[in-house]
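Standup notes
- HV: blocked on the assembly model, inputs below
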Amino acid sequence: ETGVTQTPRHLVMGMTNKKSLKCEQHLGHNAMYWYKQSAKKPLELMFVYNFKEQTENNSVPSRFSPECPNSSHLFLHLHTLQPEDSALYLCASSQGFLEETQYFGPGTRLLVL
Amino acid sequence: TQLLEQSPQFLSIQEGENLTVYCNSSSVFSSLQWYRQEPGEGPVLLVTVVTGGEVKKLKRLTFQFGDARKDSSLHITAAQPGDTGLYLCAGVRGSEKLVFGKGMKLTVNP
């Protein structure tokens, strides 16, 4: 596969569940990002990793926990989410840190019941 | 307050019509980008504009960066159903992170 892939593409979970989103980039990039896309809101940057190190946490609640084991893989661990967390979660990567050209994955559509 | 305001937010037109989408801000950006996001997919970069007054063309799409680098426009000529999607503008100010507008949802009817 090429580009940025995300799994699963769709996820339905209860508020007491624990699940993880996975992102993998095949572009040799050094920076990876998690974004949240909700209806009627702009894309919200959640986390940024540069060379596996977290460089930004945009006041994201602790029920979202990112993990970046290497430059190619990024996870978002979810636990005790709220219905308002339902959204499209997008992963992106870029060659350099906060570089303007970011490549997005297809996203995971999350529904919290 | 929204840093990047896009207008209109929604547009439904017939195939063959022309349209213009605007992305405005009170801030100066070092660059502005336009993305298109199709249903069920992530945003795909269309163009980056970096110089005030710059005009770039991508087939039937024309992008312009304002002289003061505070705004940008996207003009589509003879829209096709394949142009349907969410058009997002995003900007970079200095060394800050990329910020996005809410997007303009375009529907082109056959």
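- HV (later): unblocked. Chain A is about 0% helix and 55% strand. The first strand of chain A starts at residue 4 and ends at 7.
- Next: hand off to the docking folks.
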